Amino acid sequence: xxxxxxxxxxxxxxxxxxxxxxxxxxxxxxxxxxxxxxxxxxxxxxxxxxxxxxxxxxxxxxxxxxxxxxxxxxxxxxxxxxxxxxxxxxxxxxxxxxxxxxxxxxxxxxxxxxxxxxxxxxxxxxxxxxxxxxxxxxxxxxxxxxxxxxxxxxxxxxxxxxxxxxxxxxxxxxxxxxxxxxxxxxxxxxxxxxxxxxxxxxxxxxxxxxxxxxxxxxxxxxxxxxxxxxxxxxxxxxxxxxxxxxxxxxxxxxxxxxxxxxxxxxxxxxxxxxxxxxxxxxxxxxxxxxxxxxxxxxxxxxxxxxxxxxxxxxxxxxxxxxxxxxxxxxxxxxxxxxxxxxxxxxxxxxxxxxxxxxxxxxxxxxxxxxxxxxxxxxxxxxxxxxxxxxxxxxxxxxxxxxxxxxxxxxxxxxxxxxxxxxxxxxxxxxxxxxxxxxxxxxxxxxxxxxxxxxxxxxxxxxxxxxxxxxxxxxxxxxxxxxxxxxxxxxxxxxxxxxxxxxxxxxxxxxxxxx
Length: 514
Hints:
Strand content: 15-25%
Structural class: alpha/beta
Number of helices: 16
């Protein structure tokens, strides 16, 4: 019997993980990526002759990738040199500084130094609540097929009934943090976790405090840069037998009578397939970027519901006046005004700034001479070009915020990425980097699931369930491959029942409905 042919559209983290898993399971896999290299947002860009990470910078939930590589008969350590970060992030408010550390006792000492002994009780309560929420949702939601509020409640009642009332979906993260922290700076620090999924702490649910526990479990520094993870996943998928084709943009996904049939490349080449997994923002499907056959297979996200975009400066230069860690955050004095500007689609006059000093971190000698930086300011999604004057205004505002803490970066080379650049990378998103924003209690249930309205067409990636970020994209791919296998088993078990003498098998149970 010939192997089933699975085509994957897009070679980001989700596409590469799906390719590795499906090929490992015995499928014939063809992955088509429009760009010259694989990795999607997980990429490096040339800045003055140096490769600078131009996408995700934080590597968490390493165990997801350890398990993936082990499942495929390989080892993550064989491909990547990883070191645990002792300083998870360094934070600054003008001259005030706070280090969030991997060691819990050391972090408690830092909280007491920074905000006084009275702040310790609130911090411990926050840490415990974040841990409880993460534990409750890890298996029931993050690693499970998408469900609705009723379905999640039943899952929790079945395994950990006490957690049904522990998730705090109806309170905002900002309100919940106010119950833990009297110091507004600590409230701002932990409120920033909302931006990890492109959202505002003033409108996202308190459930997102689970991100604090994700970081508590470990932040890892990838030698050579985060884009090396994309290289490792590429090698893993190829080793399983997947065919990976770069510079192969997909023009159409073919479907007939409710069933996926294959794809057509921009070159005109037709590739037949039994199933297709799309590792692209579902907005591209809904906008007709892959043809009229499938545009109604997913629900479009209204522009007002999109997540944040960003202004990203990639630079080489010398840093002076501030002792940088790998991850650094320089906070503005008015967080509410910052997110009000973003909600209104305006540039932020006085933004908070994230600086990734890519050549710093535990186990690395202090840089001598120039080093590499990725500098990020949140921005509203927009397909409009940023003019030269506005670009300069934004750059000046970013530099002013860094200078408030004494930091200057003498740049020898720089390039600025805007929401328009991210729209080109991820069409039909307006440059939104994380899919649907996590605003309101129901937002997580409204993300695109792996199954669509067309049989044999699936979605995977950071814009889909279970959420944004590198590890979530990997989990999304795993869920998509699992759903494809369930659907395939269900069809195989059904067909013999209609044939004389056939052997019937109980169909696999499915949960996600698209």
